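Reply to dn_fold:

You asked what the input looked like. This is it:
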Amino acid sequence: MLSRDELREHLVQSRIAGDVATSRENNLDHYSSLANGDPYYMLGLTFDQPWSYRDILALMAKSAGVVSDPSHRWGQDTIDPDLTIDAVDAMAERVAAVLSRPGPSVLFATGHPTGLLAIHLPLARLCAERGARLLTPGEGWTYSGSGFARPRQIRYLQGVAMLDDKGGFVHTHDADPMRHMLSDLDGELPDLVIADHGWAGAAGEAGAPTVGFADSNDPGLFVGEAEGKIDVVVPLDDNVLPRYYAPLTERLVTLVSRALRV
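and this is what came back:
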């Protein structure tokens, strides 16, 4: 496992954190859309208090490390690598706490099959090796969303749920698949959900213990964390080359394993 300093350097060099590819304009546009109540950016969550554009920007500066200055409206934006590492460590604590119980149920899902799946698969394997039941509710459920060229269905790969579009896993922000998966469990919530995008938001909204990953342009999950609906959100660029996530994943898996040996 890399040291904290080595991991910080890797996150910056790979642009998982530091100067990220997501533009400032894109970030601010999404913050404004969330403040205006656009359901797409709420990621399946509802909020207990109103969140203004300035409130969301301040939260994202605190939780993800974007530039706090509201007059900075174009160009480069950032994610603080130390916040990423802190959140990874916090996630490891939550996962280890759940795995320390006898036979816990864990549900994995990702809307980023070309990126974050590289983190989910090793973590799902670790959970299974440590005695967790990897839940697979709703497998094969098909639905049609707005803008879909054809219906999509829930499919699992090694315990990780994704959306399949005629043989290809696809990117999604939708919360409906997770809502269906939880309804398929007949009211018995998982002991832990590890997810992103609408998969995580819908799980947190339903009251399931949830940890997840989010980019700087996905403020909904960070608002959910601030309101206590999501336990931990790891800020990171969610679509770099999959191999770049390996050192971060190694830290997460190693810390969980160490905690379970204590």
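The CA atoms of residues 59 and 223 lie 8 Å apart.
Hope that clears it up.
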